[in-house]
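Troubleshooting: if your tokenizer reports a length mismatch, compare your output against this known-good record of 140 residues.
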Amino acid sequence: METTILSLAQLELNELEAFVELMFLAAYTDGAVNADERAAFRGQVVKGTHGQLDDALVASLLAHIEESMVGVDRAEQLASIRARLGDPRKRRAALRHAAMVVLADGVLGLDEVKFLETAAVALGEPAEAARQILDEARRG
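Known-good structure output:
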């Protein structure tokens, strides 16, 4: 299985938002987004956009997305993310970014694995792809 390397700087704004929404949904699986997961968001977006988005803009984007994502219907949100990420390579890359966020705190819960499996299927991947994506994320 090939690893998809994708710069967030290559994404349109609606695609970047879809990536961040998926990362947030993954982090929020256990009911809270902790400091390590928040730092992983910020770091991935700033690094991934090659500094095109400054830290203040990233913080504002993350706060807006976090506010709008609490209490959403996950299935509907995953369908929306899939619709905005038309390219299967982008969807797989988004799953990898989400996996990096759930791994950020050093604890991988069963609920997080289950969410990644559900998200993989919703985004057009087989459920087993979640394990491969987690392995890719662990390798960095």
